[in-house]
Write a structure and sequence with these properties.
Strand order of the largest sheet: 2-1-3-4-5
Order of helices and strands: HHHHHHHHHEHEHEHEEHH
Radius of gyration: 22 Å
Structural class: alpha/beta
Number of strands: 5
Shape: elongated
Distance between the termini: 73 Å
Helix content: 55-70%
CATH superfamily of the largest domain: Glucose-6-phosphate isomerase like protein, domain 1
Amino acid sequence: MRDADGVIRQLEQEFASLSPQLQIAARYVLDAPNDIAMHSMRAVAERASVHPSTMVRLAKQLGFDGYATFRDSYRERLQHRAGTLTARAHRLRRRASSAPDASLFAELHDAATRNAELTLANTSPEALSAAAKRLHDSRRVYVVGMRKCFPVAYFIHYCCRMCRENVRLVSGFAGMLADDLRGISAEDTMVAIGYDPYTRETVLAAEDAAEHGAYVIAITDSSVSTIASHAQQVFVVSNGGPTFFRSVASAMTLAEALIAFLLAQGGEDSLGHLRDTERQLERYRTYWDEAAGLRGQA
């Protein structure tokens, strides 16, 4: 398989000799290489504002026998682009030493904005509605996301528990992964969150859920990720940026949208449970009383 980085260099070298339409397509490929790996040819063509046949012509211009093999090279690149944490940290340090702080911040800002825009553009209201309905109708909902993705999993679990009782966080704490998954069946749904490199326990949990007939919703960084292969519904989130870690900001944005759809579809039972939760929080005086605090300072 040809190296996608070599294809990028070829595009840069031959760009001036391409036809105007191929230049439009090539510019998109150069600007958004991850999109080639994650989306269909028609979706890429629509985003690039060209006809799908233009993408085929570009692939053949670059020496591929078709668009599928062209896309495969980008999928291979996406799967191996991460490198080690240390290598990415070294790149960040070199980047910071050669540019002012404002430049790094601007790059972080642009990456965060682009990640959110790409994620939401790749997500339809129909998909969110279908996922929310599945969560609402399930006997139990299991949420799993380890290591860097744990904040997203915990956030989904935390918010869902405020309006539902049937949500379980699969944490694997103290080696209890198998126990966390005990009893999962075709009546249940699992939300699995994972980025490359994929945490072994998350992959095993999704695999176990699928083997027991549960419906798996994946929140991941590629439609061809290991976690996605076990899922019936996949939400692809963009997570690139200049830092050594993969950003979870866009996954949080997607999680917020999913929870909003779940509450909107939940009906009176969800609202009733939310009211009970609020009463309990008040009874335990969970939140700081700002007014009381100010009175105490008087």
